[in-house]
Amino acid sequence: MRVxxxxxxxxxxxxxxxxxxxxxxxxxxxxxxxxxxxxxxKDFELFTPACEPTxxxxxxxxxxxxxxxxxxxxxxxxxxxxxxxxxxxxxxxSCGYGGCFIEWxxxxxxxxxxxxxxxxxxxxxxxxxxxxxxxxAKQLSKSVTEVTHNHPxxxxxxxxxxxxxxxxxxxETIDEIRRVIQESYYPLDFTLDGIRNTYRFNETCQQTVPxxxxxxxxxxxxxxxxxxxxxxxxxxxxxxxxxxxxxxxYYGIPETIRQSAEKYLNPELLEILREFEY
Length: 278
Hints:
Layout: H1 22-31, H2 55-70, H3 77-89, H4 99-105, H5 119-122, H6 125-130, H7 134-145, H8 152-169, H9 174-184, H10 192-195, H11 209-217, H12 222-231, H13 236-251, H14 255-262, H15 267-277
Helix pairs in contact: 1-13, 2-3, 2-15, 3-7, 7-8, 8-9, 8-13, 11-12, 11-13, 12-13
């Protein structure tokens, strides 16, 4: 059964102004202090002075800016994604990019480099929120992904994330989202409790996206989804960013969490967020 929760823009379930696309950023900020110091429990403080936005937030906002700049005509989205990821990303050269990506970002001739890294999935949440159909969501995801992560597994990871966000945003149930992901993308044949003690840091889509989606599927609220993602360890900021985008689409975000996260964004980044949201 489909349920009505949160429209593309406007109000969240509790009547507050929408916080479209900040879910991935919240996950990134909360997870930033755990990336190299995993915390295998759901018991932790969400925001501390040690938290910060990483490349996941910067690239999420860069893709949002690319989508905004298209003004509804996405025929040149790939080119705009290249432009804005490089233009915005170069302002933040030390926020945690992978080696191949930072080389691409500063290259005189940026070309796709056949990556299947989880960076493909952490940056695409805006595609799931702005699309008017599932087919369009998939195409937007492909356009912004293949300019760097053109390996089939990279494109798949980004599309699975975008699909989950679009379905969640559209009012599909958790059971239906699970069914679609299992039939079209990944066999979710594990539980968080089952992998918590053995899951290790992994930068591939194949070993990050399924775990991030499962963190959402086992959740009971936005905050619970973020805690789920952190609790299994691994690449914590990216895991939580992917989970956060889906969880926002499904649950909305408590105003107090949104306000706490926004304090970590400088005026330039907040401006992009506001431009996309409203």
